[in-house]
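B., you asked whether I could sanity-check this one before it goes into the benchmark set. Here's the sequence:
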Amino acid sequence: MKAAELKNLGVEELKAKLAEKRQELFNLRFQHGTAQLEKTSGLKAGRRDIARILTVLKEKE
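And here's what the prediction gave me:
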């Protein structure tokens, strides 16, 4: 997800996306821990998406 796309969203939408991405990251970590995750690059991408959302939220404050 691009930062430009996130800037067009409202605060409530960003908070919802943040909760969704955190849940996805939790699931990826769980799969990684049980050796079911094949593409470990998803962990890094998930963390970066969360950071982007948090950055845009701080900018809107």
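One thing to flag: Residues 11-33 form the longest helix (23 residues). Otherwise nothing jumped out at me.
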